[in-house]
Amino acid sequence: MQAYDLRGLGILVLEKHLLIRKLLTDVFSEFGVPTVQSTPDPDVAWTMFCNFPVDIILCDWTEGLDGMEFLTRVRQDPESTNPFVPVVICTANTELRHVCTARDTGMTEYLAKPVSALTIYGRICALVENNRPFIRVSDFFGPDRRRHQMDRNSGGDRRRQLH
After folding, report:
1. Residue 86 CA from chain centroid, whole number
2. CB-facing half-sphere around the CA of 106: CA atoms within 13 A
3. How would you write the pLDDT of the chain (163 residues) with one tens digit per residue?
4. How many CA atoms lie within 13 A of 162 on its CB side?
5. The pTM is what?
6. d(Cα 25, Cα 45) in Å, to the nearest integer?
7. For the chain, what are the domain ranges?
8. Largest Cα–Cα distance in the chain?
9. CA–CA distance, 152 with 9 (Å, rounded to integer)
10. What's the rounded Cα separation, in Å, for the pair 102 and 105?
11. What is the four-CA torsion angle of 103, 60, 110, 55, rounded to 10 degrees?
12. Which of 112, 132, 159, 160 has its CA 20 to 30 Å from the CA of residue 141?
């Protein structure tokens, strides 16, 4: 796995459970990330997102914390300071329907709980190494959901790329 210098990142963690928030904050601190803000409250997370530089969001999705609502707000709200920010959904919801819902809402990566420092770092590497363009189609705005390059001359479904 590639080694990256993460000392310039600002990370926002929206996580319901205090212990997991603390674990994630400690992991990022060990990675050298200087700024990790965390909260269990989506409204506080929104304020943090709008007022501080955020390079990556880790967002929980569980009973009592609607990560999909927060993700939609980040991607679609006219007040969003960076609708292109990478959002990693970190959840115990691992059924295919959950992954598809998160994908269709605009998540960048998906991380199934329980997590380890290695899996978290792997998702950060994926964000760096697989930077996908953003697209807007009907009511969807987010990273291109296609993981493989398609032949642009094939007449297949081509969407306007935004980033």
Report:
1. 4
2. 26
3. 788 888 999 999 999 999 999 999 999 999 999 999 999 999 999 999 999 999 999 999 999 999 999 999 999 999 999 999 999 999 998 899 999 999 999 999 999 999 999 999 999 988 888 888 888 888 888 888 665 554 445 555 554 555 5
4. 12
5. 0.84
6. 15
7. 10-139
8. 50
9. 34
10. 5
11. 90
12. 112
Residue 141, token pair as written in the block: 């705005």
> Which pLDDT score is estimated for 148?
53
Q: Where are the beta strands (DSSP E) in the chain?
A: 10-14, 35-39, 56-60, 87-91, 109-112, 134-137, 140-143
What is the pLDDT, as a whole number, of residue 149?
Answer: 54
Say how far apart CA 60 and CA 149 lie, in whole Å: 30
Strand partners, 57: 12, 87
Residues whose CB is less than 8 angstroms from the CB of residue 16 and which lie 6 or more positions away in sequence, other chains included? 40, 60, 62, 64, 65
User: What Rg, from alpha-carbon coordinates, does the chain have?
Assistant: 16
